[in-house]
């Protein structure tokens, strides 16, 4: 299923057709996969759950500052605060943490100076 039937990306926001929800892309902190569901975490603390795979959201957000850092996590790089070396996870705004895969850690290390 294409995302055009599910959501429209326009003017910096995601407009979900059937749920009548509009989310500003800059407010998205992180997306987390849970089987065929995706949890969307916002900067104001709200969380939405959509019955769509994270791959669909990855395709929608490819033109924005989002990075797939793990098979279950996509983060908004604008909300990135730091790196926790003990848990090997990225620290995001709202005290959210996202696991970082070993393979993507080395890719991101070149892009981001916070990874040691």
TrEMBL record:
Residues 21-114 form the HTH LytTR-type domain. GO terms for molecular function: DNA binding. Gene3D superfamilies: LytTr DNA-binding domain. The keyword Membrane does not apply. Keywords: DNA-binding. PROSITE patterns: HTH_LYTTR. The keyword Zinc-finger does not apply. PANTHER family: STAGE 0 SPORULATION PROTEIN A HOMOLOG (PTHR37299:SF1), TRANSCRIPTIONAL REGULATOR-RELATED (PTHR37299). This is LytTR family DNA-binding domain-containing protein. It comes from Flectobacillus longus.
């Amino acid at each position: 299923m294409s995302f055009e039937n599910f959501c429209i990306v326009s003017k910096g926001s995601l407009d979900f057709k059937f749920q009548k929800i509009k989310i500003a892309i800059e407010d998205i902190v992180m997306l987390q996969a849970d089987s065929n569901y995706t949890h969307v975490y916002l900067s104001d603390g709200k969380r939405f759950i959509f019955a769509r795979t994270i791959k669909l959201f990855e395709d929608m957000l490819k033109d924005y500052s989002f990075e797939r850092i793990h098979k279950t996590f996509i983060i908004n790089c604008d909300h990135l605060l730091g790196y926790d070396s003990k848990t090997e996870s990225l620290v995001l705004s709202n005290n959210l943490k996202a696991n970082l895969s070993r393979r993507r850690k080395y890719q991101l290390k070149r892009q981001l100076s916070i990874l040691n």
